[in-house]
Amino acid sequence: MNMLIIEDEHFAAKRIESLVKEHLPEAKVLEVIDTVEEAVAWFSSHVEPQLVFMDIQLADGLSFQIFEKVKIHCPVIFTTAYDEYALDAFKVNSIDYILKPIESAAFKRAIDKYQKIYSNDLDKINWKNLTHDIFNAKESYKKRFLVKSGQSYSYLNTSDIKLFYSEDGLTFALNESNRRIMLDSTLDKIESQLDPSIFFRINRKFIIPLDNIKKIHPYLNSRLKLELNSEFTEDIIVSREKVKAFKDWIDS
Fold first, then answer.
1. pLDDT tens track for 89-143
2. pLDDT the model gives residue 86
3. Which top CATH class is 2-135?
4. CA 182 to centroid of chain Cα atoms
């Protein structure tokens, strides 16, 4: 089985390759491509692979531009950090849509879906219904966090959290009463468990819900500074590389 990876983030590409080896040891990754231009050239001069893993936001544009320039008939599994392009993804020949960071379970579900579809007679597949089912599948996001206090446990509802942040190697949540609560998890893992329409990771240290943003101010070096509804003494800065995605998230 031949595969192609179209991904401009080195570590994301390596993650996909690792998951391919784990779940499809017989598969061969033909190449890793990181731009729209290179992808167009590749499809124009090669036999199509049996499956493509394709990031949506590439170094030189959106991967949907590839479909405008060359005909692609093979199935595609899209990978992306944001879900705003889900509808566009299913206008082309996508069979699944995985949010980053890519977890092994999500990857396996996508592969299982691919194998189920392509082990059947393709002429008998109702592609319209398949696309509808995929697009309308409900994503399960974390509703609460287990919290340990002394020798007892309690829980914190995700909807009551006004800020997630890391400090000195530990992860904390700020609740509605501005009380900070330590969580037994990493910020990376928490980010993958949250609804991306509600929470946004503005930099390596902070994840913030939309309803806690009071005002947005321009800041040094093309960054943004957030004024919160809750009390927090440290400056909340949107990193420069996150500014565009943050603005798109606000404007979605």
1. 455 557 888 888 888 888 998 888 888 777 654 444 454 454 445 455 545 688 9
2. 52
3. alpha beta
4. 25
**What is the spatial distance between Cα 150 and Cα 206, in angstroms, rounded to a whole number?**
26
Positions of CATH 3.40.50.2300 in the chain: 2-135
User: What is the pTM for the complete model shown?
Assistant: 0.49
SS (H, E, C) 40-83: HHHHHHCCCCCEEEEECEECCEECHHHHHHCCCCCCEEEEECCC
Q: Is the dihedral of CA 84, 90, 92, 97 positive or negative?
A: positive
Indicate the Cα dihedral angle 60, 62, 67, 68, nearest 10°: -80
In angstroms, the CA 136 to CA 72 distance is 24
Architecture of domain 145-250 in CATH? Beta Barrel (2.40)
> What is Dmax (Cα atoms) for the chain?
64
Task: Single out the residue of 65, 59, 64, 72 nearest to residue 32, CA to CA.
Answer: 59
Provide the terminal-to-terminal Cα distance of the chain, rounded to the nearest Å.
Answer: 38
| Strand bridging mode 61-62 / 57-58 | antiparallel
The string of pLDDT tens digits covering residues 88-103 is 545 555 788 888 888 8
Mean pLDDT of 185-208: 92
Q: What is the CA radius of gyration of the chain?
A: 20
